[in-house]
User: Fold this.
Amino acid sequence: MSSSTSSSDNMAGSRRIWLRIFLTIVVGMSIAIGAVGLFVSSMGAGSQSLLGRVLQAQDAIPQIAAEESDLVMVFGSSMVEAAFSPREFDRSIADAGGDVKSFNFGFGGLNPLFQDYVARRIAENLKASDRRLELVLIEFNPFQTTKTRRSRAVALEEAYIALLASPAELWQILLDDPERGLRMLEIRYLRDGISAEASTTFFWAEPFRAPRGALDSAIQEEEGVEEKLNEVLEQLGPKFEEEYPDYDGSDWYYPWQGGGTIKAERAEDTLALFDQYYALTQTDYQMTIDRLSRIETADIEELDFDPELLEAFVRVVENFKQVADHVEIIMLPKNTDWIKNSPAALARQAEAIQRMEDATGVPVRNFQQIDAITIDMFGDTTHLNRYYGAAAFTAFLANEYAALLQ
Amino acid sequence: MLFNTPIFFVFFVVFLGIYGLILVQKRPRLYFILVASLVFYGAWNYRFIPLLVGSSVIDYYLALAIGAATTQARKKWLLTASVAMNLGILGLFKYADFALTSVADFLQVFGVEASLPTLSWVLPVGISFYTFQSLSYTIDVYRGDMQPRKGLVHFTTALAFFPQLVAGPILRAREILPQFHSLPVPTWEGARHGFLLVTSGLIKKTAADLLAIPAAVLFDADGPVSLLETWTGVLAFAGQIYGDFAGYTDMAIGLALIVGFKIPPNFRLPYFAISPVDFWRRWHISLSSWLRDYLYISMGGRNQRYRNVMITMLLGGLWHGAAWTFVVWGAFHGVIITATHYLSSLGPFAGFVDSKSRLLTVLKWAITFYLVLVGWVLFRATSINSALDIIANMHTFGGLPASGPVAMKIAIATLVTVALMHLQDWFVITRGEAFENKKWVFWPVLILLQGLCLMIGEPSSEFIYFQF
Assistant:
């Protein structure tokens, strides 16, 4: 009798211990994950800081679909973000007798692997709204499809895909590779996009990052440039607030159709400040370190292409073909004073272009060297500046496509 | 299914949930551990489950037959069968291609072009660990160190037990098999210590992932690397491999404790060693003691000591991987252990080796750590030539750091990280129990550290020791 009682007491005791252990694990880990989430969001990190512009643009698609005018989209990298001014484009087309509403879908930091997911979401949303694009211009950016460029994004690859994939795609990833799928579900639903790799990048990596251009220690900035630049920036901030009191801080701002500010809206003295700003940011020092940084992070001159990224780019085009009446692939102006490709790199680029044209059936229009763009219209070694470069390139595009859009 | 991934967390929570429901039923619990362990193993590659189960079934019956054999000759024959099977499996999967390419390279030296076919088989994860573990059982039974125990499921479950299956420690049957017969239930004290070890292991693994970056700057460099970055890279790799392997082992021991099983420690502050011999008493203890008990002693131990040490260390090096760099690493350790033994037999050096003076202890520690670092270069380098270049660079001043002004910061951070890993382990070993009793500090600190680990990540997060 007593032995049976003691045995059942032992069993009850063991069960209590097991329950305590079980709850410790579940509750302890929940607290740890919750604490990480709170800390990360209190530091301003999250899906919006990682991919805010992309997510905001995606959210805007139902509103875009409801526009009455014909729809035009320019899709690509940060070079598109800098180079295309939708409102100026629409005005130019209107002057030529057309009625379009164009949108800037240029996003920095996305290689074609990620662009593929964005393009899928755009296509899905437009299909759901039963709306088609009249024209889509898809930028092919050579240095965004290199092996080097991809290797630099590996740490954030899962975080980006976790945020850009649809629930169905995440489910499929979970079925194909449960380990990866579960990690991505955790990133998306428990960590708001901030994977361990992303938080390391945000919080820990900065003090150990070599300064841009550190490889070339011979380069020195002229004295006083940094101070002057800070002075100009200090004046530009308040100017912006004065001139755009309604701006809500979005990375992708609907009233600007995803583009930026335009020259016609800025005061004369503001534009004069911008002239100073452009001059101060294009010193030999600034341009040299920018070039070195592009070589280091994107292999911009030698262009060793990543075949998977090229395939992903083909998928981007195929996604848009489903929802656009006219699909064009374009290459944006290149700063030939600073970026000089070797003959071998140019041959690789020609081969990549040929492969994409064959795969998509869409010819690539190369606008890398056009008369409308001069070297002084660049803000750095790759991007056009806003008030000269973007304005000129947008006018160029409007001229190129006016006949189609009338 | 790495211990530091969400999928393992889900696996373990589900495992523990079901385990608790059948806690009072011994046989279902045993079967459940086996099934869960096979699921865990199958997550790597389910095709190798029959290999694991098959080799355990054969060894189980061979051990029974050895125990029942009436003649020494028959016992020997049965043991030979077990050794041949286990080493045959290991040789086929791990060393066949290495042997074939080495033969071809050797023939090429004499101008003979031999294009030998290679197998190119995938290496089953954990094979080096479970074959040695299984082998220790038949050898122990042969030597009469333990009696064979009936219970095929018990033996297979002990061999496949998921916390230690893929990267050890290499358990002896006499340590683990009785536990699977008695099937202990979890205790709160054991589980609490298990949580501490899991957290400690997770921190080391996380630190190891970060140290992989400066290590790669050196070992994966295309061109010359500065003196500072060379030493930083070597030190970083020393920290990386320690954090990676000791971290994994801590987690394995901790997880087993949470479930109620005791696994002996595999590391004891190895970088505090004051001689190469001492290092191997602290580093991967389960392997070094296995090699000592089943190889070194089998060859005669102290009789022909230097020869036996060299052979043991050469094979120990080869155990780590099918490449000449591992063989040379093993040989290097063989030489420094032999040299230690030799010097300690000489009058003037014996005094130095045995001295308890603080200054001499620090000097002995510095010499040992330096030798261990040189050894890690041989271990990590992609080729022997590359290793020799790096070792030469460690002793040559030249060139400025490629990463510029941050090189010194990285060097300091690396040094601090490696030191903190050992201080943490020292704390767990010496103060762990007292710390566990301070529950208002213990649990918040544990959760804080877990949270910290959730915030640190690095692209390559595979455990290095899985390849062995």
About this structure: The longest helix of chain B spans residues 72-109. Residues 6-185 of chain B form one domain.
